[in-house]
Each structure stands twice: as structure tokens, then as C-alpha cells.
Design goal:
The chain is α/β, with parallel strands linked by helices. It contains 5 helices and 8 strands; from the N terminus they run αβαβαβαβαββββ. It has a single domain, classed as Rossmann fold (3-Layer(aba) Sandwich), CATH 3.40.50. Keywords: Methyltransferase, Transferase.
């Protein structure tokens, strides 16, 4: 696993030890950023299932200015912090150990809006459609923002969730990438 492009291009990243997380492959990560970027001029991102932090670090390397990364796994939080330190991104990122729905509620109270949101839950606990509906209802995504969902190809997502529409979907083996926008 590595940073594919931007200011930290080529920097290797650690994976979360064990089998509790499923890291996004470099091929899928590159495809995601080709769909939504590939580069950014500032912006704030939310990663609700941080894993190793690889997607957020890639977005920061490509120009995002700040990130909030959430994960409920202790090993994932430790790995995220190690990877952020390696990239010298500690001051750009807030990291929280929390369950996704609780984190969303806390973010609603902060009245913050995001330019980019990553939803890449473990396939066994996917509740992406409900999470997108809450994000839309409470205006956590800017009107010009993008939600990137990485999910099992076995789990179909609706074309429309609230005011958000699936604008693109690509399949890579068992993985499906769905992009939602207003």
C-alpha cells in the first residue's frame, strides 16, 4: 500500500494488522481518484471508516486541506496515527475512535460541511443508504460535494437517496464504487 499521487507520491503506508479491515487496493484507489479528482484545491473530507487512513491520506496528498477520520477499531486508529505521522499530516487531521452513526451525530452538532465523504464500511455491516440519507438530511455534504462509497458488489444501492443521486458506479472484482452527488 502506498500513496499513488500528489505531494506524498510513492510513500509506503502501513496496513491495519489482522483481518479486521479490508484495505482499498492501489488499483481501486487510483480509479476512485480518477473519478472524483484527480486533484483538489483545498477542501475538507470525512472518512467514516478510516481503516489505515489510506484514502484520506491520498486525498490530502492530492490537495485536500483537512480531514476527519473515524474508525471504531483500536488497531485501525493506531495505524491511522502512524501513517499520518509518516506523512507529517498530524496537524491536518482529526482522528476519532467511534462508531459511524455516533460520529455522524457528533458532526451534526459541530455544524460542519464536507467537500468529500468516504464510506467504506466492512461488508458485513454495510448500512450505506441509511448513512447517506442522514448525511443529506443534516447537510453534512456541501452542495458541490461528493460521497464515495466502497461496497460489496452484492449490495445494490438505490439510484437516489434523498436529494443525492448516484452519478457513477464501477465494479472491480468483489468491490463496487458508487459516487453520489446533489
Amino acid at each position: 500500500m502506498r500513496v499513488i499521487s500528489g505531494e506524498k507520491k510513492g510513500l509506503p503506508l502501513k496496513a491495519v494488522p489482522g483481518k479486521s479491515t479490508r484495505p482499498t487496493t492501489d488499483k481501486v484507489k487510483e480509479s476512485i481518484f480518477n473519478m472524483i479528482g484527480p486533484y483538489f484545491e483545498k477542501g475538507i473530507l470525512l472518512d467514516l471508516y478510516g481503516g489505515s487512513g489510506g484514502l484520506s491520506i491520498e486525498a490530502l496528498s492530492r490537495g485536500m486541506e483537512k480531514a476527519i477520520i473515524i474508525d471504531q477499531d483500536r488497531k485501525a486508529i493506531h495505524t491511522i496515527k502512524e501513517n499520518l505521522a509518516k506523512c507529517k499530516y498530524e496537524t491536518k487531521v482529526e482522528v476519532f475512535r467511534n462508531e459511524a452513526k455516533k460520529a455522524i451525530k457528533a458532526l451534526i452538532k459541530r455544524e460542519i460541511q464536507f467537500d468529500l465523504i468516504f464510506l467504506d464500511p466492512p461488508y458485513a455491516i454495510e448500512d450505506i443508504a441509511n448513512e447517506i440519507a442522514i448525511i443529506a438530511d443534516f447537510e453534512l455534504l456541501k452542495k458541490s460535494g461528493v460521497i464515495v462509497c466502497e461496497h460489496s458488489k452484492e449490495r445494490a444501492l438505490p439510484e437516489n437517496i434523498g436529494d443525492l443521486t448516484m452519478t457513477r458506479q464501477e465494479k472491480y472484482g468483489d468491490t463496487c464504487i458508487s459516487i453520489f452527488q446533489f
